[in-house]
Input
Amino acid sequence: MICLKANCAALLSLSLLVLFGSLLNGVVLATAETISVPAGKTVVRSIDLNADDEVSGRITVVGNDESKDINFTVVGPNELIVSPTMKVTVTNFKFSVSEKGTYRFIFDNSLSPVDKTVSFNYDVRHYWFGMPQEFVLMLIVVFVGVLGLVVYALVSKR
Output
């Protein structure tokens, strides 16, 4: 009976570790995409973000023409301009989210007679309690692991 309790405690601890470990998958949202922006058109990509998220990325306009730039703007909820319009060929961007909502990445090729292809990559890092989400989850996993070991040690003494 005692061995059964010890095995149950060990199994419970292991199950909780696996559960919380699986939560660590996907804590940073990474996206890479190639976008075709037709001549004279604008293409928008939207993403829902939470307050305190941090977004960083890179834009590269590819093509053979001499005018390989495109206008890029980031607009937040309530039409808040997060990153003012910039004419870019290659640029890195980064911003912290101040308000929960839908953020739009706007690729404006409306003044060009030539189609553009844009390589668009970005990462979203979530924060909980002012700390990166993956760090908080790691602390939870460590806490549950230690708690499981304590329970196992107490049950196995009986």
Q: What stands out?
A: The mean pLDDT is 82.
